Amino acid sequence: MPLVALTGGIASGKSTIARRLAEHGAVLVDADQVVRDVQLPGSPVLAAIATEFGDVMLRSDGSLDRAALGSRVFGDPAAVQRLNAIVHPAVRLESQRQFDEAFAADPDAVVVYDVPLLVEARLNDHWDLIVVAHAAADVRRRRLVDLRGLSEQDAAARIASQVSDQERLGLADVVIDTAGSLEDTLRQADELWAGLPRLLARE
Protein backbone atom coordinates (compact mmCIF):
# COMPACT_ATOMS: atom_id res chain seq x y z
CA MET A 1 0.00 0.00 0.00
CA PRO A 2 2.62 2.56 -0.96
CA LEU A 3 1.59 6.20 -0.69
CA VAL A 4 3.78 8.54 -2.73
CA ALA A 5 3.74 12.33 -2.38
CA LEU A 6 4.64 14.19 -5.56
CA THR A 7 5.35 17.88 -5.11
CA GLY A 8 7.09 20.77 -6.82
CA GLY A 9 6.92 24.50 -7.32
CA ILE A 10 4.58 26.16 -9.78
CA ALA A 11 5.45 25.27 -13.41
CA SER A 12 7.86 22.57 -12.27
CA GLY A 13 6.39 19.88 -14.50
CA LYS A 14 4.79 18.02 -11.61
CA SER A 15 1.56 17.31 -13.49
CA THR A 16 3.51 15.84 -16.41
CA ILE A 17 5.17 13.38 -14.04
CA ALA A 18 1.84 12.59 -12.37
CA ARG A 19 0.20 11.76 -15.69
CA ARG A 20 3.10 9.53 -16.67
CA LEU A 21 2.92 7.60 -13.40
CA ALA A 22 -0.83 7.20 -13.91
CA GLU A 23 -0.14 5.77 -17.37
CA HIS A 24 2.04 3.16 -15.67
CA GLY A 25 -0.82 2.22 -13.34
CA ALA A 26 -0.56 4.51 -10.35
CA VAL A 27 -3.79 5.73 -8.77
CA LEU A 28 -3.55 9.51 -8.97
CA VAL A 29 -5.13 11.78 -6.38
CA ASP A 30 -4.87 15.44 -7.41
CA ALA A 31 -4.82 17.87 -4.48
CA ASP A 32 -5.96 20.76 -6.68
CA GLN A 33 -8.99 18.73 -7.78
CA VAL A 34 -9.72 17.79 -4.18
CA VAL A 35 -9.69 21.51 -3.31
CA ARG A 36 -12.19 22.18 -6.09
CA ASP A 37 -14.37 19.28 -4.91
CA VAL A 38 -14.61 20.48 -1.31
CA GLN A 39 -15.46 24.02 -2.52
CA LEU A 40 -18.46 23.04 -4.65
CA PRO A 41 -21.71 25.01 -4.27
CA GLY A 42 -23.55 23.96 -1.15
CA SER A 43 -20.42 22.72 0.61
CA PRO A 44 -19.59 23.74 4.18
CA VAL A 45 -16.19 24.96 2.94
CA LEU A 46 -17.72 27.35 0.40
CA ALA A 47 -20.16 28.66 3.00
CA ALA A 48 -17.28 29.28 5.40
CA ILE A 49 -15.30 31.12 2.71
CA ALA A 50 -18.30 33.37 1.99
CA THR A 51 -18.74 34.05 5.70
CA GLU A 52 -15.06 34.87 6.18
CA PHE A 53 -14.40 36.91 3.02
CA GLY A 54 -17.86 38.03 1.93
CA ASP A 55 -20.48 36.95 -0.59
CA VAL A 56 -18.53 38.80 -3.30
CA MET A 57 -16.43 35.62 -3.43
CA LEU A 58 -19.42 33.82 -4.98
CA ARG A 59 -20.53 33.97 -8.59
CA SER A 60 -24.19 34.48 -9.47
CA ASP A 61 -24.64 30.71 -9.84
CA GLY A 62 -23.37 30.14 -6.29
CA SER A 63 -19.95 28.79 -7.30
CA LEU A 64 -16.66 30.12 -6.01
CA ASP A 65 -15.11 33.04 -7.87
CA ARG A 66 -11.54 31.78 -7.73
CA ALA A 67 -10.10 34.90 -9.29
CA ALA A 68 -11.79 37.13 -6.71
CA LEU A 69 -10.63 34.93 -3.85
CA GLY A 70 -7.11 34.81 -5.23
CA SER A 71 -6.98 38.58 -5.54
CA ARG A 72 -8.30 38.95 -2.01
CA VAL A 73 -5.76 36.72 -0.29
CA PHE A 74 -2.68 36.92 -2.51
CA GLY A 75 0.08 38.85 -0.78
CA ASP A 76 -1.83 38.92 2.52
CA PRO A 77 -0.34 36.24 4.80
CA ALA A 78 -3.04 36.64 7.45
CA ALA A 79 -5.80 36.15 4.87
CA VAL A 80 -4.02 33.13 3.43
CA GLN A 81 -3.80 31.67 6.93
CA ARG A 82 -7.54 32.17 7.49
CA LEU A 83 -8.34 30.59 4.14
CA ASN A 84 -6.05 27.64 4.80
CA ALA A 85 -7.70 27.06 8.18
CA ILE A 86 -10.99 26.60 6.33
CA VAL A 87 -9.78 24.58 3.35
CA HIS A 88 -6.93 22.38 4.55
CA PRO A 89 -8.85 20.23 7.08
CA ALA A 90 -11.51 19.42 4.47
CA VAL A 91 -8.86 18.61 1.87
CA ARG A 92 -7.09 16.33 4.34
CA LEU A 93 -10.29 14.39 5.05
CA GLU A 94 -11.31 14.05 1.40
CA SER A 95 -7.84 13.07 0.18
CA GLN A 96 -7.61 10.45 2.93
CA ARG A 97 -11.01 9.11 1.87
CA GLN A 98 -9.70 8.74 -1.68
CA PHE A 99 -6.50 7.04 -0.46
CA ASP A 100 -8.56 4.59 1.60
CA GLU A 101 -10.91 3.93 -1.31
CA ALA A 102 -7.98 3.17 -3.65
CA PHE A 103 -6.35 0.76 -1.20
CA ALA A 104 -9.68 -0.93 -0.44
CA ALA A 105 -10.14 -1.58 -4.16
CA ASP A 106 -6.55 -2.81 -4.56
CA PRO A 107 -4.33 -3.35 -1.50
CA ASP A 108 -1.27 -3.37 -3.79
CA ALA A 109 -2.12 -0.06 -5.49
CA VAL A 110 0.51 2.65 -5.75
CA VAL A 111 -1.26 5.88 -4.82
CA VAL A 112 0.40 9.11 -5.95
CA TYR A 113 -0.77 12.32 -4.28
CA ASP A 114 -0.07 15.27 -6.59
CA VAL A 115 0.24 18.00 -3.95
CA PRO A 116 1.71 21.49 -4.52
CA LEU A 117 1.57 22.49 -0.85
CA LEU A 118 3.27 19.47 0.69
CA VAL A 119 5.73 21.52 2.73
CA GLU A 120 3.09 24.03 3.79
CA ALA A 121 0.25 21.66 4.67
CA ARG A 122 1.04 17.93 4.60
CA LEU A 123 4.68 17.50 5.56
CA ASN A 124 3.99 15.58 8.78
CA ASP A 125 1.69 13.03 7.16
CA HIS A 126 3.04 9.53 6.58
CA TRP A 127 4.47 9.19 3.08
CA ASP A 128 6.30 6.11 1.90
CA LEU A 129 8.17 8.22 -0.64
CA ILE A 130 8.45 11.94 -1.40
CA VAL A 131 9.20 12.87 -5.01
CA VAL A 132 10.10 16.45 -5.92
CA ALA A 133 9.82 17.81 -9.45
CA HIS A 134 12.54 20.42 -9.70
CA ALA A 135 13.50 23.17 -12.10
CA ALA A 136 15.29 26.36 -11.12
CA ALA A 137 13.14 29.41 -10.42
CA ASP A 138 14.26 31.23 -13.58
CA VAL A 139 13.21 28.24 -15.71
CA ARG A 140 9.80 28.12 -14.04
CA ARG A 141 9.36 31.87 -14.36
CA ARG A 142 10.04 31.64 -18.10
CA ARG A 143 7.44 28.85 -18.42
CA LEU A 144 4.84 30.94 -16.61
CA VAL A 145 5.44 33.82 -18.98
CA ASP A 146 5.80 31.86 -22.23
CA LEU A 147 3.29 29.06 -21.66
CA ARG A 148 0.72 30.53 -19.27
CA GLY A 149 0.77 34.15 -20.36
CA LEU A 150 1.70 35.71 -17.02
CA SER A 151 3.63 38.95 -16.83
CA GLU A 152 7.20 38.79 -15.57
CA GLN A 153 6.07 40.50 -12.37
CA ASP A 154 3.16 38.13 -11.75
CA ALA A 155 5.30 35.08 -12.49
CA ALA A 156 7.98 36.21 -10.05
CA ALA A 157 5.34 36.93 -7.39
CA ARG A 158 3.78 33.47 -7.77
CA ILE A 159 7.14 31.79 -7.35
CA ALA A 160 8.11 34.01 -4.42
CA SER A 161 4.85 33.16 -2.62
CA GLN A 162 5.82 29.48 -2.41
CA VAL A 163 8.41 27.81 -0.22
CA SER A 164 11.97 27.84 -1.48
CA ASP A 165 13.48 25.19 -3.73
CA GLN A 166 15.88 24.36 -0.91
CA GLU A 167 13.03 23.53 1.47
CA ARG A 168 11.40 21.21 -1.06
CA LEU A 169 14.66 19.54 -2.07
CA GLY A 170 15.57 19.04 1.57
CA LEU A 171 12.69 16.62 2.09
CA ALA A 172 12.96 14.74 -1.22
CA ASP A 173 13.58 11.01 -1.40
CA VAL A 174 13.73 11.32 -5.19
CA VAL A 175 14.31 14.43 -7.31
CA ILE A 176 13.19 14.55 -10.93
CA ASP A 177 15.02 17.28 -12.82
CA THR A 178 12.49 18.87 -15.16
CA ALA A 179 14.69 21.63 -16.56
CA GLY A 180 15.48 19.66 -19.70
CA SER A 181 13.27 18.30 -22.46
CA LEU A 182 9.87 16.72 -21.99
CA GLU A 183 11.38 13.42 -23.10
CA ASP A 184 14.02 13.65 -20.39
CA THR A 185 11.39 14.31 -17.72
CA LEU A 186 9.29 11.36 -18.91
CA ARG A 187 12.36 9.11 -18.94
CA GLN A 188 13.04 9.98 -15.29
CA ALA A 189 9.40 9.29 -14.42
CA ASP A 190 9.69 5.89 -16.12
CA GLU A 191 12.85 5.16 -14.14
CA LEU A 192 11.09 6.17 -10.93
CA TRP A 193 8.24 3.76 -11.64
CA ALA A 194 10.61 0.93 -12.49
CA GLY A 195 12.63 1.59 -9.34
CA LEU A 196 9.71 1.90 -6.91
CA PRO A 197 10.01 -1.63 -5.45
CA ARG A 198 13.69 -0.98 -4.64
CA LEU A 199 13.01 2.50 -3.27
CA LEU A 200 10.18 1.31 -1.04
CA ALA A 201 12.05 -1.76 0.19
CA ARG A 202 14.83 0.29 1.76
CA GLU A 203 12.56 1.42 4.61
UniProtKB/TrEMBL annotation:
A Pfam short name: CoaE
- What are the EC numbers? 2.7.1.24
Molecular functions per Gene Ontology: dephospho-CoA kinase activity
Q: Which reaction does it catalyse?
A: 3'-dephospho-CoA + ATP = ADP + CoA + H(+)
First-tier enzyme category under EC: transferase
Q: What is its main location?
A: cytoplasm
Q: Where, per UniProt, does this protein localize?
A: Cytoplasm
Q: Which residues form a coiled coil?
A: none
Record-listed ATP binding positions: 11-16
Task: Spell out the family assignment given in the record's similarity comment.
Answer: Belongs to the CoaE family.
Which purpose does this protein serve, as stated in its record?
A: Catalyzes the phosphorylation of the 3'-hydroxyl group of dephosphocoenzyme A to form coenzyme A.
Q: What is this protein called?
A: Dephospho-CoA kinase
**What is the native source organism of this protein?**
Microbacterium terregens
